Amino acid sequence: MPTTAAFPRHIRLGGGAIAELAMVLETLNLHRPLLVTDSYLAGSGAAEQVVNILKAAGKATAMFDRTVADPTTASLADGVEALRRHQADGVIGFGGGSPIDTAKALAVLAVQPGPMRRFKAPHSYAGPALPIIAAPTTAGSGSEATQFTVISDSDTNEKMLCPGLSFLPIAAIVDYELTMTMPPRLTADTGIDALTHAVEAYVSRKANPISDGLALSAIRLIATHLKPAYRDGADAAARAGMMAAATQAGMAFSNSSVALVHAMSRPIGAHFHVAHGLSNAMLFPAVTAFSVGGAQQRYATCAREYGVAGVHTSDHVAALALVEALTELCRELEVPTPKSYGIDRTAWDSLVPLMAEQAVASGSPANNPVVPDPAQIEAIYAQVYD
Predict the structure, then answer these.
(1) Read out DSSP for 67-92?
(2) What is the CATH number that goes with domain 10-179?
(3) In this structure, are strands 132-136 and 148-152 parallel, antiparallel, or unpaired?
(4) Domains of the chain: which residue ranges?
(5) Which InterPro entries match (predicted)?
(6) How far apart are CA 357 and CA 363, in angstroms?
(7) Which of 101, 86, 87, 167 minimizes the C-alpha distance to 138?
(8) What is the reported pTM?
(9) How many other CB atoms sit within 10 Å of the CB of residue 334?
């Protein structure tokens, strides 16, 4: 079967790229954008600077700043109303993965009746939607370059993966200078998130030559730049490298898929309100250890690109070296376990069967090199708790 791939039509990459946002809107013939962001970026003045750039270019711009971390269906209602009130002709997602995912959902709901669960996997939506422009302020989610959004159902606590070309931004503004003030914890969690995207895209059963090249490039960049960015947030070269890597990893998994880490991560976020990147990090080493036997050569290639195995290292040894490297990375970047994060053991254990069921229902485990049954997923949840 031929490989298919989809990417944003316009990408501006590099320091100061946000200044070209108005130019991109003009190219797209958009004049009434709604800027979708969060209260932190609105309060810090960063979002207002973007509004000023657009207004100076003659764009009638309004701001919606009530997005929430790990957006829910309930959190979208006010945004839909803001779009209609402003008569927006496009949506700009400005922030981390949550504001961008919110913007994607709003772009569809502005012209399509809800509820949002209509659009969850395995359905793929490619119908009418407002154009989406994404400007990330974190280097991790890659949402600026993916044809997915993730929204939690407020009625069921299910974290829904909603795929389709209508969720793919038409333009991405990838400006590493927007990430310079990220604190170490957020730098670590989003960076490991990007690495998870890259590795899962490469070992996925849906991997292809296009996603492979992007995934391996992202792995190399993250190996070089994540730790320096974590240690010194003012390291411009490290920030630039991580921003490029996050976008490449997003492109990779958007055109391949994620797998078991993400399948298991989404329920943790939905039930325990753990940030997506952090819940990925909690799972990444253990899930990789479980999966290496199903794609040893591919995991070995990841290890070589990451720099923990050489060309003459056997695939078996290299794949195990990757597991150890991920374990050490999470230790060095002080990734907490669910227990040390403060999640109650009784609550965790009681929800494990439901989380395993939701992980399987997402479809992502079917992309994993080793396709687990629910009992194996439950065992991994139990393993990572401590």
Answers:
(1) --SS-BHHHHHHHHHHHHHHT-SEEE
(2) 3.40.50.1970
(3) unpaired
(4) 10-179, 184-385
(5) ADH_Fe/GldA, ADH_Fe_C, ADH_Fe_CS, Alcohol_dehydrogenase_Fe
(6) 11
(7) 101
(8) 0.96
(9) 11
